[in-house]
Structures are given as structure tokens and as C-alpha cells.
Amino acid sequence: MVGFVGTFAVRSGRVGSAVSSRSAKVSLRRQVVRAMAESKAAEENKSKLEIEEVEPQKVSSTPEYGSQELVSADLVEKLQSKFDESLTQIKNIDVEELGETATGSSKTLLNNFLSGDWLQRGETYGFLQLGLALMLLRPQGGLDGLVTFMFGPVLLLGGAFVCVKSVLDLGLGQLSIWPKPTPDSVLRTEGIYAQVRHPIYSGVLLSTIGYAVATGSPARMALTGALAYFFMRKIQIEEEFLEEKYGDDYTDYQENVPFKLFPKVF
Fold first, then answer.
1. What pLDDT score was predicted for residue 49?
2. pTM of the shown model
3. Cα separations (Å) of 218 from 61, 157, 226, 227?
4. For 22, what's the count of Cα atoms within 13 Å in the CB-facing half-sphere?
5. Residue 221, Cα to own-chain centre: how many angstroms?
6. Cα–Cα nearest to 213, from 200, 203, 222
7. Which residues make Cβ contacts (< 8 Å) with residue 41, sequence separation at least 6?
8. pLDDT in tens, 162-221
9. Residues annotated as region Disordered (predicted)?
């Protein structure tokens, strides 16, 4: 009997301990849940406080938008003032005076371009400058494309310049396609005629060579060769007429200017 009571007491103690342990665990869980709920509630209250603090800032930012609008309006007003000022300056331009100035400047540039002794003004550097500029503008390509793009236009424009210069030095009143000089013609030995005796033909040949090179046409190059042969034959006949008209003066001119078409070449 005593043993049974002792055994029951031991078992009851164990059960009591287990019940107490379970109660402690349940209590601990409740405390943890309560703490988590309080923490969550605190975070929500903190968020509400932050939102309430931000709202006054939104209200206070309204004047800033107003100041930006004032700055934009001031900028627009300044731009409008500048535009009106520029428009007034344009309206005050004297078109006739501007045209006279442009015409005078063009004549001055042309006179500067044509003045001086032919081939004694450093033309080599001028043509090299033009050639380098054309090289910068040329399209991509090989050596053939470079030669075509560079030398073709240079020769074409150079020939045109020689023709214009020759006609101006000769005088329009003496210009004729016939080998025989005009009745009122005068022997010209100055200007470009101090370098070659038939510079108009030189300019024509340079232009035709340049055009043939620029277009890459073998047929045009062949025709240029035929034209050169024709000019040489025509020069022989033309100089017979010139010797007949001017006599010793033309003979002296031939001795002083031995080149017919190209200086130091032919």
C-alpha cells in the first residue's frame, strides 16, 4: 500500500511538472504574440506620424511653384524683347546700300584676283591651297577617285580662268574665232600675253582636259588631243597673219615670248 502511494505521488509530481511546463510555454507564446502586435501597432503609428509630417511640406511647396512660374514668365518676356529688337534691326537695314556694298566688295575681290603679273604672283601656292581644300571635300575612294575629283575640277576652273583673263587682256573688240586678226586689232604683249602668245587656246585645252578627267571619259580625252592638234595647226596660220599685219613688232614679240601655249613647255 505504501509503495502504491509513493508511486502515485511520483507520477502526480511528473504530471504536475508537465502541466506547469506547458502552461509556461503557452504564457511565453502569448507574451511573444502580444509583443509582436504592440511592435506592429507602433510601426503603424510611426508611419501615420510621418505622413502627417509630410503633408505640411506639400502645402509649403506651393509658393515654390509660383516662383518658378514667375521666372518662366520673366524669361519669356526677355526673349520676346530680344526678338523685337532683332526684328527692328532687320527692318532698318538699307537693302540698296547693302547691295552696293556687296557689288563693291565683289569688284574689289575680282580686281585683286586678276591684278599683278600672270604667273608671277605665287599661283602655285594658290592652286595647291585649292587642291587641298578639294581633297578634304572629296568622297571616299582610291587613288583614281582622288585624281578624278581633285585634278579634274582644278584644271577645268583653271582653264576657265585663263580664258577669262586672256579675253580681258586682249579686249572684247579684238575677239574673233578666225585666224586673221580684226582690222582694228592692236598687238597685245602685256598681262598674260607676256607669258604665252595664244593663252585663249591654252585655257580651252586646260578646261577640256579637266572636264575629261572629271567625267572619267577616254573619248573626251581623245577629242581633247584632237583639239590640241587642231589648235597647233591654226596657230601656224594665225601667226602668218599676225606677222603680215604687225611685221617686225610681232617678230620681236615671238623672240621675247617663245612659248605658244604653256610657259616653259610649248
1. 56
2. 0.49
3. 80, 20, 13, 14
4. 6
5. 34
6. 222
7. none
8. 999 999 998 888 888 888 888 888 999 999 999 999 999 999 999 999 888 888 888 888
9. 44-65
